[in-house]
Design brief:
Layout lengths: L1 E5 L4 H17 L4 E7 L14 E5 L7 H12 L5 E4 L4 H9 L4 E5 L10 E3 L11 H8 L20 H13 L7 E6 L11 H14 L2 E6 L5 H9 L3 H4 L11 H10 L2 E5 L2 H8 L3 E5 L6 H4 L8 E4 L1 H4 L9 H6 L1 H6 L3 H15 L4
Helix pairs in contact: 1-4, 1-10, 2-3, 5-9, 6-7
Amino acid sequence: MKILIIQHKMIGDVLLTSLLCENVKKKYPNSTVDYLINRNTLPVLENNPYIDNKIIFDEQENNNLFKLIKFSKQVNNNKYDVIIDAYSKIQSWIDVFINDAPKKISYKKFGRQFLYTDNVVKHKEPFTQLGLAIEHRLALLSPLGIDKPIETNPKLYLTEKEKLMARNLFKAHGVDKSKKTVMISLLGSKLSKTYPLDKMTELVEFLGQNYDVNILFNYFPKQLDEAKIIYNKLSELTKSKIYFDLLAEDLRSFIAIINECDFIIGNDGGAVNMAKAVNKKSFVIFSPYVSKNVWATFEDNLNHISVHLKDYFPKKYNNMNDNKIKNRVNEYYSYFDFSLFKGKLKKFLDNHVESN
């Protein structure tokens, strides 16, 4: 059996959907499992033993309908028996429509059910601590006879060389490994997913003033100015615990660095998903327009905790959908004061870290 799994776009999505590859391969070890993903997400799939071939989609090379069709025809030459479309948007619809696979699986959506032989209905509330993002993906396995997934935790695979590089980097920066190390997901992938800088400054200051920890900042090079704004507003005590220049050169080195940390705190996004995939504890702040039900994975109120504005002001969400909230995200963020969840963060830290 030859199977193609499709997941375009973001790192977190690609990492979570890689669970399908592992489950299929463990259920059907003689199958061939190919994974169609965007080029920028390749690092999270390195060394994954459950993927036979990576089919690379390059958005710059396939930026019009003609090129999309040409790409899909090339993919069809691989003669798949099954396609699992975990993305289910225009790019993957073309792949699916052109492909001759006799079995095509995706989510049930109005107006596009004709593309698939199996349309899986999404449920609205999570049944488990996995969260809807994982539960929905695992549900795509049921048409293949996998009703009880073998694996439910996405994984990242580091080499010993990569692990040693991170340990040496910590040593070079003088990080005290006798203390817990906290990675702060300081900034989101975009402003609409970034907890306001003044409020994040309060959070980091609370951590630095009250807990004997090493603190690392995670941010993109293009976000350096924003990171400095937060750093420059901190007390000298808190600054003394931050290793501001201990940064990853690329995505693989980031994974190796987070593997040396004990937990991650901050904005939801790919960094959080990667941290969880190397078994790190998490305290996550969701953007007001992102669904916590979907992306709050492994939520157990101990090792994995998240907060959302809706937890505190549910009435502000009456008659509002995600797009409406996104258009007013700055207003909604203005309500999301650190004081609202300070006690929850303290409980999380007290369970895992020694206080000053």
